[in-house]
User: What shape does this take?
Amino acid sequence: MPEIILHQYATSPFSEKIRKIFAHKKITWRSVEQPVIMPKPKLVPLTGGYRRIPALQIGADVWCDTGIIIRKIDELKPEPTLYPGGLTAAADTMNQWADRRLFWSTTPVIFEKLVMPREFIEDRSKMMPGANVADIARSAPDSRNQLRAFLEILDRQLTISSFLLGESFSLADAACFQPVWFLRIEPTSFGLAQKFTHLMRWFERVDAMGYGDVRPMDPDEALKAAKDSTPATAENVDASDPNGLKAGTRVSVTPDDYAFDPVTGRVVVSTIHEIAIERAVPELGRIVNHFPKIGFRIAAA
Ligand SMILES: N[C@@H](CCC(=O)N[C@@H](CS)C(=O)NCC(=O)O)C(=O)O
Assistant: This one.
């Protein structure tokens, strides 16, 4: 199998979701530590402007957003499954719920208690235009209510099963684990979760899974791996694309929630779940960036 590189940082909750999937699937991978705030000069050439973490790299192909990273990992190594009992819809929708609801109920609760460095607040304010990141803690009381209710839903399930979709680890466990893991950086926030005994037993079980077989990689080595490779993605554009998108069309791809940095290139893949675009990068050659359709906007460029 080609070398699997994850661009991440240790405190990143969305990376934690992928690290748990690597553990479950016993994957050998390389970890490139990227900065927590901009600039990210050794990431952006690979992603074309996309700044979020994690990003998965194999040679000159780069997958941006955990939605598409999970699909790629599952394609490379389908077993052991992330969908025990064939519960694909349940696992995929819980993954989206955890990303967009459960996770965002944790941040005001944590940030109310943790003093964040000024540079971090400035960086995240730029990433979320319109939102006042310095004021995020004001919504902590409502977020605490919602978080507790979300955690109770998980705890209630875990009173009758070892994992969220039954007796085996699934994508739902990786996805719901990461926000609870994030709470642990601030003791009073984690205290909300510690009140739920079944949730805690599950948390400890998933925490103990580790991260798979990982070795660090220098960011320059990852850039060289891209430069020394050519994209391995074959053209695959859905003939029945609902918007009539054609191979070779120049488009921009942008997240629909925050960090609105468009990535521009020519369409190589457009399927139900994926858009991939090719870019010519002066210092690296051809790079193909892959994004999920869910959570992204595609526009003519
Ligand atoms: N929908 C994205 C969310 C990723 C995300 O928000 N990651 C955080 C770190 S856990 C991030 O990128 N924060 C800004 C940054 O690191 O520059 C995904 O599933 O990958």
Q: What stands out?
A: The mean pLDDT is 97. The chain is about 40% helix and 20% strand.
